[in-house]
Structures are given as structure tokens and as C-alpha cells.
Design goal:
Elements lengths: L2 H27 L15 E9 L3 H8 L11 E9 L5 E5 L11 E5 L3 H35 L3
Antiparallel strand pairs: 1-2, 3-4
Length: 151
């Protein structure tokens, strides 16, 4: 695998984990929000990862035309997408003095578990660090490889 492929995969991994961290922090920040700017309640966000072929168009066409080794497997990276739960259940909490309380004194809050979001944030941060380590290791390998020619 080329160094550029490693850089691309590690970069996609860092981007995906950044989005995961942003979604978890937004969920945590809005855990007690009763309504947003649109007047509706906050809906929890999740990040969905899918595999993505990172080969360039010419590599794919060259492999399909038999110019590259067909036994070489596809180089896969990651693509992330933030998904907002449509039918996210809410939690009813008794707060009769709250301005958004219903006639019975209950307030509708988003179903955000602070412990789950904290674990997601820690996991995303560690995964980001792992991808950054891969990137830096590949960068150092490229630097050392270039300096070999100087010896």
C-alpha cells in the first residue's frame, strides 16, 4: 500500500472521529433542551460509518482492464454521515415551574444519556489519536525513506 493511501485513510478516519465527537458533544450540550430555534425539541444525532473505496478513478479502470494486479483488494477508507433520529423518543420529567411544562407539569426532554455520550466522546478521541499516530508514523517513514538517498 502506498504512503498516499495511508495518509488518505488516516485522514478520513480522523475526519470521521471528529464528526462523531461533534455529534456527541452536541447531544450532551442539548441534553436538557426543551425546544430549539425551530420550536421543536432537540433530536439526538448519531454518526454512521460506511466503507468507501479510496482508489482513484484511473486505478479502478486500470484494474478492470487488467493493467493492474486483479488480486489486489480494494483500498477502503471510511465515510461518515451525521444522522438525526426522526422518531427519537423523549423523556417526560416532572417540573411544574418550567415555562415549557404541559398542563400536568411535565416537560418533554430529549432522550440523551449523558453517560453514553461521554463514552462516545472518549472513544472518538482515542480513535482520533490512533489515526493521528498512523498518519505521523507514515510521515516519519516517508521522511526517513527520503533521507536514505542522502547517505
Amino acid at each position: 500500500m502506498s504512503l498516499f493511501s495511508i495518509f488518505k485513510i488516516a485522514t478520513q478516519g480522523m475526519t470521521a472521529q471528529r464528526e462523531r465527537l461533534e455529534a456527541a458533544s452536541a447531544n450532551l450540550a442539548n441534553a436538557n433542551s426543551t425546544r430549539g430555534a425551530n420550536g421543536k425539541g432537540y433530536q439526538r444525532r448519531d454518526v454512521v460509518f460506511t466503507a468507501q473505496d479510496i482508489r482513484s478513478e484511473w486505478e479502478r479502470s486500470a484494474q478492470s482492464n487488467g493493467l493492474l494486479d486483479p488480486s489486489e483488494s480494494a483500498k477502503l477508507g471510511v465515510r461518515s454521515e451525521v444522522v438525526i433520529a426522526d422518531d427519537n423518543p423523549s423523556v417526560m420529567q416532572f417540573q411544574p415551574g418550567h415555562p415549557d411544562a404541559d398542563a400536568n407539569g411535565y416537560v418533554r426532554l430529549p432522550d440523551v444519556d449523558p453517560l453514553e455520550e461521554t463514552v462516545n466522546m472518549i472513544s472518538a478521541a482515542r480513535s482520533f489519536e490512533a489515526n493521528a499516530t498512523v498518519f505521523n508514523t507514515a510521515k516519519e517513514l516517508a521522511r526517513v525513506s527520503i533521507s536514505l538517498g542522502d547517505a
